[in-house]
Amino acid sequence: MADLQNDLHTPGEVGELDDLSLDPPIPAEPYALVADPEADLLDRAHALLAAHPVADGYSGLPWALRHLPWYDLELGEIAVDTDVPRMRQGHVGALFCSLHLPEGLAADRAVAATLEQLDLVRTVIVNHPEGLRLARTAGQVVDARNCGRTAVLLGPATAAALDDSVSLLRVLHALGLRILTLAGTSWASEAGLTRFGEEVVREMNRLGVLADLSGASERTTERVLAASKAPVLCTRSGARGLRPHPANLPDDVLAGLGKERGLCLVPLTAEQTGPTVRDVADHLDHVRTVAGPGCVGLSGTYDAGCAHPQELTDASCYPHLVAELLRRGWSETDLALLTWGNVQRVLRTADVTARAAQERREPSTARIAELDG
Amino acid sequence: MTAVSSLEAARELLREFPVVDGHNDLPWALREQVRYDLDARDIAAPQGAHLHTDLPRLREGGVGAQYWSVYVRSDLPDAVPATLEQIDCVRQLLARYPGDLAPARTAADMEAARAEGRIASLMGAEGGHSIANSLATLRALYALGVRYMTLTHNDNIAWADSATDEPNVGGLSAFGREVVREMNREGMLVDLSHVAATTMRDALDATAAPVIFSHSSARAICDHPRNIPDDVLERLPANGGVAMVTFVPKFVLQAAVDWTAEADDNMRAHGFHHLDTTAEAMKVHRAFEERNPRPVATVATVADHLDHMREVTGIDHLGIGGDYDGTAFTPEGLNDVSGYPNLIAELLDRGWSRSDLAKLTWQNAVRVLGAAEDVARDLQTTRAPSNATIESLDG
């Protein structure tokens, strides 16, 4: 009986109302334009971003700072691409700080190295109280924004950081982790998710940790899309139809992502999306068309060791990109979703899913040896 | 005063000033016995057949605050993930029994839990191997609620000598002193149980905050390296720290120390490791035990330690750390966590006053955590988090 009830209903997405057949229906509030349509494109982009800031899906800042003997993000730091003044210029309202580890780090060091990254981000936030604020939930992201701070979310972390234990997932979540990349372990490999891998996804849903599928294998992607009760995201993926990079997504996956209301965050890197602003905009156009305007977002990918398109060299450059999209006729509502709204929706849905799952499920005690034998 | 009435008086006293216990290995027992299947060991129900600890007996024993040990073995790799699993276990226990266990991170939390009639639950890490030479990991443990770290367990680590290993760095290395300084800055208590006397002295020189001994007794009463020498006890008043007396028979009773040494020799003579618990090894051990009855410690044995420690260090520097579920044998009368009233009754009979006993059971341990918080607040205004590495300091 308990088994039956476990899957009786999937919690609905936030914002979708049941059809109550009201007569007359409550009309949707008309969207009021925030930018003067007559003004210059760049001015309009600034006005729009002031109202709908950028939620940046990937920053390599922690690892970049790790090797600097001294830095001051508040005053401005030329050794990195991201600092508080430039995030203000670029209207960055939320930043996902990657806890990924460089390749080649021994597996047994992964846990401690992830804790070190996490500690560094927490220290940076404490040292920059006027610019940054740690956020765990969608509500806290909005709070930070209303206080004029950039909300910092922890993640994505690498799956190896769990050391094959769901206990560690809970502990990292307790320390603030919000996103985990499902690749590069025995339970989320080229062969797809194992039984333990599925248990990890269920526990992530229960906690509200988002699944990141950038770099995940095709079979893992397919299985996680089907199994996850919360929306998934790809923190660094463009359109493979435009540029054949392994982390870019083919159209069928983009369509699947759109169907499951996931999120494709398009990176601003020369390698994945192309050397100019127009190339990045092409990817955004394509993803919007295939996955839908509710399933596309931005991922600066600054300080992650990638080359960036001209005009998009650091965190202050988002207005140039938005101006290009305005020129292409993107509506303000689509742009508001692209920069801020979609990430908000995904975070909030994951929060609600977690609350619902905690009513139904006990914390998992699964062990990899028992499930994957 | 008759025995019955002093036990009554002890229980009455514990209702007002319950026991703060410095060390309980329930999480390790749950890991080893049932791999954290908390349904299989529901501590809301009596678990006398498997464990020293469950909620009814904690209540009966007058326990008001417990440092749950998140111990992991020092002779295996992967100490950091294993420690995090132990922390997760404590968090699960707190989520499961919110009516009895109150999460506590500060002295104020401990007092609030006492006022609510719940058992304040804190965590202590047992051994510097749990941070893998990383001060960031130390801070992560603090952020997760760990409020003391024993500098070593039974084996030396790279930056500190253990009491039960060969001298190596001769106390604390330069990095070891940096660990102590960082613990001071965070507000994590430095625990000197298990460490060599040289490490105790080095740590007392290095620390800016009071230290604790989470489970150690007096070496003058029973000469075992796990116990505290008098010269170290004498330094506690100046430091403000607290020595929490432990009950483990093989540390507190000289006859038991000697018996254990003989039993270990016997095991080795038969070609087994002295901690081997396989069937054949246990057969050899039981045969030895039949020939040589195991000496039994009592409540009076522990009280003798407390009397001596009180002489040397003073009433303001004593506490209790039973080490339940971390030891196979316990003294007569202190068989499990329900036994604390027997110890208090014994001390009442020996003429300890109510205010003395209130310090022993509750006040000293709460004071020492509050003092560590005060020191941390001061240090954080002047010192940034340290990211020193063992390579840079110890070469």
Automatic annotation (TrEMBL), chain A:
The organism's place on the tree of life at top rank: Bacteria
GO terms of molecular function: metallodipeptidase activity
UniProt-annotated stretches for the region Disordered: 1-21
GO BP, sorted A to Z: proteolysis
Protein name, entry field: Dipeptidase
Lineage: Bacteria, Bacillati, Actinomycetota, Actinomycetes, Kitasatosporales
TrEMBL record, chain B:
Residues of the signal peptide: none
InterPro entries the UniProt entry points to: Metal_Hydrolase, Pept_M19
GO MF, one annotated term: metallodipeptidase activity
UniProt-listed GO biological process terms: proteolysis
Coiled coil: none
Pfam families the record matches: Peptidase_M19 (PF01244)
Domain of life: Bacteria
PANTHER family: DIPEPTIDASE, MICROSOMAL DIPEPTIDASE
Protein name listed in UniProt: Dipeptidase
